Amino acid sequence: MKGRDMRKFGVEEELLLVDATSLNPLPAGELIVARNGRETPTGHKLTTEFKQEQLEVVSPPQLTLAEQLETIRTGRALAEAAAAESGGRVAAMPTAPATDSPRRTPGPRNHKMAQRFGLTAAEQLTNGFHIHIDIDSWDEGVVALDRIRVWLPLLLALSSNSPFWNGVDTGFASYRYQAWSRWPTAGPTEIFHTAAAYEAHRQAILDTKVPLDAGMLYFDARLCDHQPTLEVRVADVCLKAEHAAVVAALARALVETAIRKGDEEPAGVSANLLRIWSWKASRYGVEAELINPFTGTPIAARDAIAQLLDELAPVLSEYDEEETVQTVVAEILQGGSGTGIQREAYQHHNNMYDVMDAVVHATHDHHDSQRVGIGPS
After folding, report:
1. Name one Pfam family in it (predicted).
2. CA triplet 6, 10, 14: central angle to 5 degrees?
3. Would you list the domain boundaries of the chain?
């Protein structure tokens, strides 16, 4: 397909900073960004996040899955090099291995958040994966938001990469989603139908004065204020770069498919019910059952994911991404999820150092992406 016919999509990865020797969380985000935060020749940018143990990589928009993988790998390499200057490394890990007191990044907004949200803010140290997909208008964006919402729990399941919280196996595949859900504005949204209704809902929340600003509207998917994109925010930061690239490609295909089906009524599933679907995805990932988006009842995870791939097949085929997506998804379903890799590492000696060592290596490993045929070798 010609590049001009494809929607651009960009990603933001929140990475965990760890000490290069101990692999414990390293509160150096502000220092690293001060040294390296300017935009790079590749178009990447390193930014601070709410906690000092975090580093965000904002990558430039891309057209193809192969380009997306390359830009994710480049962004991780830039972050790794920047962290090394302060004795650190970066790990694609959504929750910290063991830290009770993450350090807040200075600034008046973060100070206000800490005051207003108490323990939720104090304990907050989670790393998500945000995917921006180009849209022509908020009207088009709402068409997509209303129709992708029932599929977002499956993206969460595929990205799941956070079984541990403060050194304990939580039993969840994505405990990040559980921790993140404590914010009052987090989670699924209702059907809007129109951009005016979306704006009214958004303003009603801001009028409560609970969130500080629109940046704290932490919906699983939202319309972006500062650029013409729809932002899918439901996923864990993915352990492997090729998993991240494929989850991003699936999100883009979801948006494109939804817009093409804009004349069809969106599935009438309430936000409360979707929250339960997402809980199940967060609890089990791809290791048990997920909710069938067509019936609202449990089916085997691989069958639910197969429905997702069937739904997106026309767009993925047009974009020449179907084979690669199927290969990587099959690997995730066969035990290759971030959650599975972390738990396997823990079993060796029942310690978090082994988990962190496995995560750091997988964050920067190019072997798997070459094996599945994404991007240049």
Report:
1. GCS2
2. 160
3. 3-371
